Amino acid sequence: MGQTASREPASRAALVEGVVIENRGALFEVHVDGHPVICLLRGKLKKDKQRQVAPVAAGDRVRLALLEPGRGVIEEVLPRTTDLSRRAAGSVPLQQTLAANVDHAVIVFAVAEPRCDRYMLDRFLVAAGAGGLESTICFNKCDLLPPEARGPHFGLYSEIGFRALYTSAYTGEGLEELRAAMTDRRSVICGPSGVGKSSLLNALATGLALRTADVGHVTHKGRHTTSSISLLPLPFGGWVADTPGLRQLSSDGLTHAEVMDAFPDLEPYAGQCAFSNCSHRHETGCGVLAAAAAGKIHPRRMKSYVQIRGGVR
């Protein structure tokens, strides 16, 4: 197949359209009219490395040339409507798209084991909003935290307008609400490693049978072992992109407006600033800083905003 990918590009009339179901590195599984086709990339697409690790992601709509039954070459990537992206690790600022043309981000963090990093959670909310996605926060492994302790630790997100669910693949708590939020939608499930993303998906749809790795008797959960990114059909309607655990998300390249979209608790005070281009970090006459000083904005959220805003153009 490596030789066939070097043939001359097919005429546009000979191309067929499909959806990328899985990114396997050099190979891509594309569904054309419900049938899988294993594809390579045309050479010209491989050269697009200025801003992306790979120019094709799960969920992309593509045009491809069929070489033989079940085999093809991706010739063109159609424009995306939405995406969830991150800056990839390394010295060169490459952008990696985790999932394309999805409309819903299920952001999973554990209430314990591992400890919930709420600064990291805010970065996921920024990335989802910047990509045009609606977010649902899942505080998972809630069987490890007494119900009376949930509000003081995590209730802020619901209070400021985010949809937040408490879920447990072990007890089943919150699964019906999560299933309803994902029904008939294209979702991407994301979050750090070890928070139970694959266990949640297995509990929602047992037929997926995603791999997990045990992390101990107390947690009752598995560690996320996803290595590739796949678009999986859900038995109750819709699709979900299952992503590997992420250790970091950069705010480089985001705009001020994209960051502010994830901070609705700051937004009411932004119009009270003395300067229209206020960054809300250090300026005199800043309405947001004044509100924070008056206790109207949670200090952790204010600190999170300042940290993220530091990498924004």
* N-to-C CA distance: 43 Å
- Give the CATH topology of the largest domain: Rossmann fold
What is the ordering of alpha helices and beta strands? EEEHEEEEEHEHHEHEHEEEEHHHH
Main sheet overview? 5 strands, mixed, barrel
Q: What fraction of the residues are assigned to beta strands by DSSP?
A: 25-35%
CATH superfamily of the largest domain: P-loop containing nucleotide triphosphate hydrolases
**Contiguous runs where pLDDT drops below 50 for at least 5 residues:** 214-224
Number of helices: 10
What strand line-up does the widest sheet have? 1-2-3-5-4
Structural class based on helices, strands and sheet pairing: alpha/beta
Question: How many structural domains in the coordinates?
Answer: 3
CATH architecture of the largest domain: 3-Layer(aba) Sandwich
What is the level 1 CATH name of the largest domain?
Answer: Alpha Beta
Query: What is the share of helical residues?
Result: 10-25%
Nearest-integer average pLDDT = 86
Radius of gyration: 21 Å
Number of strands: 15
- Shape, per Cα inertia axes: globular
Write a short abstract of this structure.
By secondary structure, this protein is an alpha/beta fold.
List the helices and strands and how they pair.
Blueprint lengths: L15 E8 L4 E5 L2 E7 L1 H4 L14 E8 L2 E7 L5 E5 L7 E6 L3 E7 L7 H13 L3 E7 L6 H8 L1 H4 L3 E4 L8 H8 L2 E6 L6 H8 L7 E3 L7 E3 L4 E5 L4 E5 L13 H5 L6 H4 L16 H7 L5 H11 L4
Parallel strand pairs: 3-5, 8-9, 8-11, 9-10, 11-15
Antiparallel strand pairs: 1-2, 1-4, 1-14, 2-3, 4-5, 6-7, 12-13, 14-15
